[in-house]
Task: structure prediction
Amino acid sequence: MITFSHSPLHLPLEYKLVIKTKKPIKVGIIAKDDSKDFAVYTKRWNTVKGLEEFLIKMPQSPRKVRFEIYNINSKSKSSEGIRVVSKKTLPLKTNLNVIGLQNPDVVSFVKLAQEFSLKAGYLSSGTYVSDNGKFVIKYLDDIIDNNGRHLSTPARINVINGIIEVSRSTFKRYTIPGRMGILLHEFSHVYQNRNASDEVEADLNAARIYLGLGYPRIELINVFSNVFYNADTKGNRNRIKQMSDYIMKFDNLK
Result:
């Protein structure tokens, strides 16, 4: 395994890594804060043959970040045949114009969601509230329905009172950007959608805010793919496709 560290000191930034292999290798990259439990900023892979550029966007960063680069098909996480040609830090690119920061609900919820996403890996179960008291996240060990059954969903929102329930057992395993994507989806159902029950509309509204803030695209696709892993339906496949299409077009939004 190739490892190296950098100290972004909690500042927003992007890392550009150029990786080289001589033959096709599934190269995995993890960026995490070793000083905290379940504090992963990216966990991704791509098949590399020759040179491949990885752009790792961090609107939120730790004091010190540790990178791990390895062959994901190797049980020992070997890095044989993998070389990091270059690594650079760049200013974070955002598109704040599309977020709607003139809306105080967006500003207030984003602040709560960012703080919660950053700490969810080690927070205890409990209730977490925005500074203005309007937004509430109930962090539960598991989400249970009215019949006492454990639900597989990582989060859900009550469309009447706007309270978001989050499953701690599921949520802590997600990357920090992935958590942000899920929370923005729930928020969008009530506070961004024209139709509160429209899942695709909530996906795209969440993606607009998420991408505008500069979060990594791959983590958004990965977290929703993870959520849908045991629910491979035509509707969920359509949601992933529409989200992927939106991501591809996002840079043209103004």
